[in-house]
Design brief:
The protein folds into three domains: 3-69, Orthogonal Bundle (Arc Repressor Mutant, subunit A); 83-148 and 259-279, Periplasmic binding protein-like II (D-Maltodextrin-Binding Protein, domain 2, 3-Layer(aba) Sandwich), CATH 3.40.190; 164-255, Periplasmic binding protein-like II (D-Maltodextrin-Binding Protein, domain 2, 3-Layer(aba) Sandwich), CATH 3.40.190. The protein contains twelve helices and eleven strands. The chain has helices at 3-15, 18-25, 29-43, 59-81, 96-101, 104-113, 127-137, 177-180, 194-202, 215-223, 233-241, 271-279; strands at residues 48-50, 55-57, 88-93, 117-122, 142-146, 154-162, 164-168, 185-186, 228-232, 246-247, 257-264. The strands form three sheets. It has a five-stranded mixed β-sheet with strand order 4-3-5-11-6. A four-stranded mixed β-sheet has the order 8-9-7-10. It has a two-stranded antiparallel ribbon with strand order 1-2. The mean pLDDT is 87.
Length: 286
């Protein structure tokens, strides 16, 4: 499959306009049209519905988008892997909080010990995508995820278990159901077991007044005294120690979150997998 056809397809997807796609690719509109037609002929499906005014993806076109993105990504990663500048190339994925609060010092130490290893971290990606696409494609060598689902092709090793605490910038009494309906509560879901546990407190149909998916933003709001919310102890402990944050009692504590390193089982002896596990403090895949 011609990569220029994939580039044209994704450019039209992003702009929904053949002229703008041509400008983005610095080619003629007729060249974009020709590449799309060639791609449709190769796949055997129409990818766009188009008339004189509008362009839209067909059902087949929408289904093809992630595959086109992955094929281009794999090609780009292969160029880096084959580079002679480094002896090894390591790609890892996982939540930003894990890298920042758990492995930052270990990362710096690893860089000093392995100057000939290039490392790339992917943190701002849907966690399901990390496992089901990037890891299975071989784009990511080691992925960190909270409570990952079992997969027949993926091995996983427990990295750590973290206690989840309800914290606030003010000392308060025990929190109950009504407190979570307060506009002062900020919600983040930690791990696969957390939503079910939390639903047991607030009931079905609950919608938080403020929900985030980024722990650093929540921490900033907490330290400002704007909200209260749940944080892993590994993030909250330094602020509990200097009394900038306080733990709020709960009648039933949330389940701990477990973080795992995942990798393709068939790649357990691959140099990049072993390097990734070593960075995380795991000597080698078992």
């Amino acid at each position: 499959m011609d990569l220029s056809h994939l580039e044209a397809f994704l450019a039209v997807c992003h702009t929904l306009n053949f002229t703008k796609a041509a400008e983005h690719l610095h080619i003629s509109q007729s060249a974009v049209t020709a590449r799309i037609k060639a791609l449709e002929a190769e796949i055997g499906r129409t990818l766009f519905d188009r008339d004189n005014r509008n362009v839209s993806l067909t059902q087949a076109g929408s289904a093809f988008v992630p595959y086109a993105e992955r094929m281009l990504r794999l090609f780009e990663e292969s160029k880096t892997t084959l580079s002679e500048q480094y002896e090894d190339y390591l790609i890892m994925s996982g939540p930003g909080a894990v890298w920042h609060y758990r492995y930052l010092e270990r990362l710096l130490s690893f860089r000093r010990e392995h100057p000939k290893t290039a490392i790339k971290f992917l943190s701002d990606i849907d966690p399901g995508y990390m496992i089901h696409d990037l890891l299975l494609d071989g784009t990511v060598h080691v992925a960190i995820r909270y409570d990952p689902p079992d997969h027949p092709k993926v091995s996983r090793q427990l990295l750590y278990e973290d206690e989840i605490l309800l914290v606030s910038a003010e000392e308060k009494g025990a929190a109950g159901k009504a407190d979570f309906y307060s506009p002062d509560y900020c919600h983040i879901e930690w791990g696969a077991s957390f939503p079910q546990w939390f639903a047991g407190i607030v009931g079905s149909g609950y919608i938080p007044s403020l929900a985030l998916d980024h722990s650093t933003i929540l921490l900033t709001l907490l330290l400002q005294g704007s909200v209260f919310g749940f944080l892993p102890r590994s993030i909250a402990q330094p602020y509990l120690d200097d009394r900038r944050l306080f733990r709020l009692p709960l009648e039933e504590p949330p389940p701990p979150v477990k973080a795992y390193a995942s990798y393709l089982t068939e790649k357990r002896d691959h140099a990049s997998v072993r390097l990734g596990l070593r960075l995380l403090g795991i000597g080698s895949a078992e």
